[in-house]
Fold this protein.
Amino acid sequence: MTQRITVIRGDGIGPDIVDATIQVLEKLGCDFAYDYADAGLMALENHGELLPQETLDLIAKNKVTLKGPLTTPVGEGFTSINVSLRKQFNLYANVRPVRSFKGTKARYEDIDIITIRENTEGMYSGLGQVVSPDGSEAEAMSKITRKGAEQIVRFAYELARREGRKKVTAVHKANILKSTSGLFLKVAREIGEQYPDIESAEMIVDNTCMQLVMNPHQFDVMVTTNLFGDILSDLCAGLVGGLGMAPGANIGQDCAIFEAVHGSAPDIAGKNLANPTSVMLAAAQMLDYLEMGDKAEKLRNALREVIETGDRTTRDLGGSHGTTEFTQAVLDRV
């Protein structure tokens, strides 16, 4: 039976890099059927809202979505589209792997780290945001539940076991945030005891940032709360060459969205300059999710060979070529 994929091309460079990725998926012989949907600025122009009901219906129907970068307009009255999608479909696990590719401008070699971020709770979820009438005070609420913590920590250990990983590090700030981060750490310790085959570690978030810069090779899988995970996953992307090398998956019980994690870069939109690696790697995550691991590895290996050899790479990778030339280099190897 043909798998239907909801495709959100996105804003800015989104259409360029998503279309390039669809070409590669077609060349791989994935036999997908694609249903295109609008979100972001394109949706605002075409439908008068950032996230139309038709788009939500398609995501719910197909269960699997490939998404380019979206722009949420700056200003009051606009809620983050990504946060809205995560809440709407309870996409509780954000999975951000980073791996070193030779040929990038990265400072390190042999990096292989997965950040598992709780995606629906914590400070980043935006609960209770209030600004006083005179603008002199602002507050927001952080809420952690035992259910949410158990769900994300168990997800991390199950992923580690499934992928043959050796270590899970719970990242927290329980020394100061004794209630919220304290509950997360308590649950992480309890869950860790149920996986004796995997080494369990814990680290305060500020020390984690320092250790990632000084000795990133000590990390394997990290699991943490929403805001910390948002920051740490970007730091990890910096270890392997930047956000252009970092994909992301948002996974729930029966629905998943795979995305480029960088912005929409409107300044280079339509100029054939964008590096499509992030969304191509997100597509590889999607293939893994759909139990098409052989095709996922073909895609990753093709990307690795193109970047390592410098064959038709984009400017951010030290080359002088555009999106179409880079994509053709990947297609030639697939």
User: Anything to note?
Assistant: The chain has eleven helices and twelve strands. Residues 118-239 form a domain with the Rossmann fold fold (CATH 3.40.50).
